[in-house]
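Morning!

This is the sequence you dropped in the shared folder:
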Amino acid sequence: MTPGGQDLVEFVTGQRWFGSKTRDVVQASVVDRASFGGGDTELELLIVEIRFDTGTHDTYQLLRGDGLDVLSEPEAATALVRLIRSGTSLQGQEGTVELIPVPASFAGVPDDVTVTRQIGVEQSNSSVVLDDQLILKVFRRLEPGVNPELELLRFLTEHGFEHIPQLAGWYQYVGRPMESTLGILQQFVPDGLDGWELALDAVLDRTEWFLYELERLGEVTGELHTVLGSDSTDPSFAPEQTSAESLGLLTATVDEEIEAIFLDLPDDDPELEPLLGRGEEVRERLRLLTNLGGVGRVIRHHGDFHLGQALHTPRGWILIDFEGEPARSLPERRRKRSPLRDVAGMLRSFAYVASAAPMLRGVAPAPDWEERARESFLDGYRATVDPSLIPSGTAMDKLLQVFELEKAVYELRYELNNRPDWLPIPVAGIVRLLDAEVPV
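The structure's back. Tokens below.
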């Protein structure tokens, strides 16, 4: 089938990774294509523009063989990996696909790797594992500029940070429509256990062991931020002093999110009753918390940090998925922020474990489990992070509460739209922050 017109519209809008399912699509067209071989099959990489009734558009990447989108078929992924390894370029009609290797990461990897399996849980990308040694992540929705995951992985790999799957290569589009990262290739972690699942399983009878491991995770997180804030010669990564203006921008951004979500809260949901009429109280809490002295520095950070982004291995914790929150724009995800934003995300993850364990495992953790998890992680973090990056004393506690409030409001919107049964978790988090004393 030649892709185009209604066939293309129906295909793209029906994919899990299509991110605008509530919008009306009026047209789909291929704006560029580049051919590449995959054994006996001729393959094409397509840059596709999806136009909406509002006059705006999104851009997506497809891989075409005998049908539309064949990434799950071995020929496509292995052909892309082969091209990345060789550093080949593909010529399109409007631009060039550049494939760039990191040769050191291919040490011990045979030339003829094949697809082992496709990762099926992602919503915005597509990933395939090859021989349990490499993982290829294909970015579906494309934005102009360098994807934060490539940028951060390249920086961390070059600076010797060991707690990530090392970057093996990437491919990118350079042309008239846009310049954009198309995908990345990393070493695969075959023995990694998902931190979220591990936490749920450990609630029953391995609490002390897991709390010890959370302290190690705190140490790794502190090392991550220290490395990310270590190079003053790179403008994209050099740590910057915060200013009254940047703190005001943070406050305004969180304030807008609070106003938007509380304005539309349904008043007939009993799960939301503890928050009804308290929007101004939440905003007042924000204003009290941002009465800070020094707030440390702003740096590049993970951006979507929680237990599901950490793999537990015999060699220690490995951190993954550095794209940031997919719902935010690329410039937002690349913005330098306080590293405590990552810390707050992880702390909120512990709240989710404590609340979800009875639903998912039929076991309630001890009443003090969440508090002990927070303490263990923060002990490890404080022991390893460069102290110049974070505020000290009560200023750190205040700023953490700001970011926890931001995260809990984000969670509230997400659960309202996707998992109403989980609403009590962010509701309880917001109420706890409202009831807590403001550090002085």
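Headline: The chain has a mean pLDDT of 89.

More detail when I'm at my desk.
O.
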